[in-house]
Amino acid sequence: MSVFAPDLMAAVRARFAHVATCPFEGERIFFENAGGALTLNSVVETSARYAAIPDNQGRANAASRALMATIERARADMALFLNAPGGRIFVGESGTELLFRMIRDACLGAAPGGVVLGSTVEHPASRSAAARWAEVTGREHVWVRHDDATGRVTPEAYAAVVTPEVRVATILHTSPVTGMAMDVAGIARAIRAVAPGALIVVDGIQHACHGGIDIAACDVDGYAISPYKLFSRHGFGLAWASDRLTALGHDALVGGPDGTWELGTRDTGAYATLSDVVAHFDWLGSQVSDAAEPRARIEAAADAIHAHERALTDAMLRGTDNLPGLASMPGVHVVGGADNPAREGLVSFWADGRPAADIVDALNAAGIRTHLRKADHYSGNILEPLGQAGCVRVSLAHYNTLEEVRAFLAAMRSIL
């Protein structure tokens, strides 16, 4: 089991705003990271600094040139973070909006006929976009069934369904309900083995804060994230689109530069905060490795984050010290199973005879912030096959501690 050393843990937590206290309720443990991660202090400072700048982009003055340089630096930083050679980095309204745009443009620009392929594990951001644009373009929307027992879908499951008629395909990187990561590279290979020309778009929104994104190794055409789940702030999304996807027709100003995805002037401060996020991964990588190159440090940070979060979720499931874990608490059922190597910093569960909403309320009263997932349009695809109206979602990030897990287990023992 690997947990950050105390001095590194303290240094990590010092970099985030409201790491131990809610500005409205006081002291609390934040286990609601899948709903929106904590914000880096540097992001707060950067946002304020750029919000005060009156100048606009594309003007003939030093301030405007500085803004444009900030945007280009952020694009380069994010290309490094995503390991995305080529293609375009751009921002939009939200991660969901960008998924809709890329999936729409893929469906409208793909060769006529065929089908749109997705999976039942996906978040409605991609499921809804694929369903809508499959219908608009007169294509069947084919679903690959996920495994209810493991909470994930595999390359083998895609391979069993994919046909040469697949024109557009969607992949979820990590589920915000089950917490399980998918083998994106393996799924993309399974698709391309049968439908090499398919346009593949990935929802990376839940996965991003755990690191470990390697677009160059995945052979996909689009990847979207929501920066407020990546230690930045609300109000925008970020996407990468391949050169092939960018070359298709999409909304743009007549006579504008080729390959432009953005409509109107974007917030320079939003871009600038992405550089802060990448700098944080670079810093963490320098603390846990001797890597000399920035990309290697980012990869080392992702490995350390995975190890730290694995240690925390293992303790949550198996127990620590004299505290029993969720897996041994009578009547508790863990979504995706307690022994699941695909888990990324998230445990969802329900308890017999105790509504999930009541457990969330009781944890909140104990100063522990979690979240209720209901069998609605967001999570029904996961919960309805399990026969559950709701579950408790406990989501972690690398600034959470083993002491916080102990407090959670002690509260759960009392509640149940």
From TrEMBL:
E.C. numbers: 2.8.1.7
Superkingdom as given in the UniProt entry: Bacteria
Keyword Transferase part of the UniProt annotation: yes
Domain Aminotransferase class V: 29-408
Gene3D superfamilies: Aspartate Aminotransferase, domain 1, Type I PLP-dependent aspartate aminotransferase-like (Major domain)
Entries under InterPro entries matching the protein: Aminotrans_V_dom, PyrdxlP-dep_Trfase, PyrdxlP-dep_Trfase_major, PyrdxlP-dep_Trfase_small
GO molecular function (one): cysteine desulfurase activity
Keyword S-adenosyl-L-methionine: no
Keyword entries, A-Z: Pyridoxal phosphate, Transferase
PANTHER family reported in the protein's UniProt record: CYSTEINE DESULFURASE, PYRIDOXAL PHOSPHATE (PLP)-DEPENDENT ASPARTATE AMINOTRANSFERASE SUPERFAMILY
Name of the molecule in the record: Cysteine desulfurase CsdA
Organism this protein belongs to: Roseivivax jejudonensis
Taxonomic path: Bacteria, Pseudomonadati, Pseudomonadota, Alphaproteobacteria, Rhodobacterales
Gene name, Swiss-Prot/TrEMBL: csdA
